[in-house]
Write a structure and sequence with these properties.
Layout: H1 5-9, H2 17-31, H3 39-55, H4 58-65, H5 88-96, E1 115-121, H6 123-128, E2 130-141, E3 157-158, E4 167-174, E5 177-184, E6 193-194, E7 207-218, E8 227-230, E9 246-252, E10 259-261, E11 264-271, E12 287-292, E13 308-314
Helix pairs in contact: 2-3
Length: 340
């Protein structure tokens, strides 16, 4: 090689990236033009900078260790590049087996995509759970070819170009001699088989779009924005591959009386004064709060429920709501929170 970058930085050939960085910084402080304006020192600074640029880059360092200098002039000994049309990645494939994990024919079956469906629920359905029949637009296995992608009575045929291996090999001359590299077969796309007569219904995709019905159970205690995952209920993958997952996005509709705050239910009730038990008649403030322990929203995680709190506003000419006793009568029938 024209330049010994390891010697330029004063490190061994097995030096770690940290050792190379430390050596460069030490030399850069000594040879920087701002510190030493001498012309020869400036040339030396350029040399260590070039050496560091090569050795600090993993790909350039591999290229240099194999005998090629990325900064050498074309045609010079050790020049980067390995002949016309010969990329450096082929050298890596030949020596280090890059892409070896993907060698061989690829499967046409791939996992399907996940799908998300919005489910609108009332407050009571969020609290106590619900069962819904959902219509989902999705992809299912093609009934004509059963996911194979071929016309009825036919099957995928072995590729004539690669012989079913899914890849083709090329021999290229380089400074190291003859190097053999492999690439996906251009005729079959790496599958190893070709479909001469595609299925007329799915056009060789192995799946078709349709709408199917699915019954789902919404657990108690869900809240607005909750996502419920149904494994294996998503779209079928190409080539009849395994399905993805279906996610239910819960959207809670507004309630005319109650407002949910975490696991508690809150409401405001307007009452007309004059009743013996009215908070204003007892000399209290204009506003009073009642909290019924236990009859609130199911938590959805641990046993028990939140609380139901009511804010009562006294109003002399106010509207008497029929829901004035909702905090103690309807909700009192809900089982109270269990003590742990």
């Amino acid at each position: 090689m024209a330049n010994d970058y390891y010697a330029t930085l004063g490190v061994s050939r097995d030096a770690s990236p940290d050792d190379i960085k430390k050596a460069y910084r030490r030399l850069a402080r000594e040879l920087h033009p701002d510190v030493n304006p001498d012309v020869r020192t400036q040339e030396r600074f350029k040399e260590i900078t070039q050496a560091y640029e090569v050795l600090s880059d993993a790909e350039k360092r591999q290229m240099y260790d194999l005998g090629a200098d990325p900064f050498a002039r074309p045609g010079a000994p050790g020049a980067g590049g390995f002949g016309a049309g010969f990329p450096f990645s082929d050298i890596m494939d030949a020596f280090f087996g890059a892409g070896a994990a993907s060698r061989g024919p690829r499967s046409r079956a791939r996992r399907g995509r996940n799908a998300t469906v919005r489910v609108d629920l009332d407050l009571s359905e969020c609290a106590f759970g619900a069962t819904r029949d959902l219509a989902v637009d999705t992809a299912v296995v093609c009934p004509t070819c059963s996911g194979e992608g071929t016309a009825p009575g036919t099957h995928p045929e072995t590729c004539d170009v690669c012989g079913g291996r899914g890849e083709v090999s090329h021999v290229t001359r380089s400074f190291l001699g003859q190097v053999m590299t492999s690439r996906p077969c251009p005729a079959c796309g790496g599958f190893g088989t070709v479909i001469r007569r595609p299925c007329p219904e799915c056009d060789a995709d192995g799946r078709v779009r349709t709408r199917r019905s699915i019954k789902v159970r919404i657990p108690a205690g869900v809240e607005d924005g909750t996502h419920i995952q149904l494994a294996g209920e998503g779209e079928i993958g190409p080539g009849g591959g395994p399905p993805g997952d279906l996610f239910l996005e819960i959207v809670q509709r507004p309630h005319p009386i109650f407002e949910r705050q975490a696991d508690d239910l809150h409401c405001t009730v307007l009452l007309r004064p004059g009743r013996p038990d009215h908070p204003c008649d007892r000399g209290n403030a204009d506003q009073a709060r009642r909290r019924a322990g236990g009859p609130g929203q199911a938590t959805g995680q641990a046993p028990g429920r939140g609380d139901a709190a009511g804010q009562v506003r006294a109003r002399p000419a106010g509207l008497l709501l029929q829901a004035a006793g909702c905090l103690q009568r309807p909700l009192s029938r809900i089982p109270a929170r269990r003590s742990s």
